[in-house]
């Protein structure tokens, strides 16, 4: 009986220690994520050679055309909350794309951080921009950054 109690006590102590550690980690993560940057909906914009062949390929993965027109060389496709853009002849490289002001269905959000404010925040952190949004304007605008590995990041506000 003594062994069972000591194992049980050990198990309870271990569980309490893990719970305390988990609560501490959760508390710390809340502190660091409360000031996170709200970039809007995310998609990957793929540069493709043959938009019809690419569209048919991604349909096999369950993606459906959501927006755009293949005859105009671009189609946005969705599978649940996942979105990819297929672009023929528009970009040199694949691009990580964020759309402030839009939800996952390209509907305007009631509140969001304007692209120009996001631009100011990133510049204040030393991020070099390849293309900047005109800060004297309102509404649709975009800026472009490139990560240390050469991957373009487009922040493109449509509202």
Short descriptors:
single chain, 159 residues, 2,3-Dihydroxybiphenyl 1,2-Dioxygenase, domain 1, eight-stranded mixed β-sheet, 3 helices, globular
Explain what this protein looks like in three dimensions:
The chain has helices at residues 2-33, 51-59, 115-124, and strands at 41-48, 64-69, 74-79, 82-88, 95-99, 129-131, 141-146, 152-157. The chain has two domains: 1-34; 41-157, 2,3-Dihydroxybiphenyl 1,2-Dioxygenase, domain 1. The radius of gyration is 23 Å and the shape is globular. It starts with a helix and ends with a strand. The longest helix is centred in the first third of the chain and has 32 residues, at 2-33. It is 32% helix and 30% strand. Mean pLDDT is 85; it is low at 9-33. An eight-stranded mixed sheet has the order 2-3-4-1-5-8-7-6, covered by helices on one side. The protein has 159 residues and is α+β, with helices and mostly antiparallel strands.
Question: Mind sketching the topology for me?
Answer:
Layout: H1 2-33, E1 41-48, H2 51-59, E2 64-69, E3 74-79, E4 82-88, E5 95-99, H3 115-124, E6 129-131, E7 141-146, E8 152-157
Q: What is the CATH class designation of the largest domain?
A: Alpha Beta
Note the total helix count.
3
The appropriate CATH architecture of the largest domain is Roll
Give the full name of the CATH homologous superfamily of the largest domain.
2,3-Dihydroxybiphenyl 1,2-Dioxygenase, domain 1
Strand coverage percent: 25-35%
Q: Which bin fits the share of residues in helices?
A: 25-40%
SSE-based structural type: alpha+beta
The poorly predicted ranges are: 9-33
> What is the 3D form?
globular
Mean pLDDT: 85
How do the helices and strands follow one another from N- to C-terminus?
HEHEEEEHEEE
């Amino acid at each position: 009986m003594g062994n069972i109690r000591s194992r049980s006590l050990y198990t309870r102590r271990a569980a309490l220690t893990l719970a305390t550690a988990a609560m501490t980690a959760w508390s710390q993560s809340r502190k660091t994520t409360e000031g996170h940057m709200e970039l809007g909906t995310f998609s990957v914009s793929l540069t493709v050679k043959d938009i019809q062949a690419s569209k048919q390929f991604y349909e096999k993965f369950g993606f459906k055309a959501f927006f755009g027109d293949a005859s105009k060389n671009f189609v946005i496709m969705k599978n649940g909350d996942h979105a990819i853009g297929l672009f023929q002849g528009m970009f040199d490289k694949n691009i990580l794309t964020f759309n402030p002001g839009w939800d996952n269905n390209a509907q305007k959000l009631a509140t969001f951080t304007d692209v120009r404010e996001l631009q100011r925040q990133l510049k204040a952190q030393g991020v070099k921009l390849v293309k900047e949004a005109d800060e004297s304007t309102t509404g649709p605008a975009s800026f472009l950054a490139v990560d240390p590995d050469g991957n373009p990041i487009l922040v493109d506000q449509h509202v």
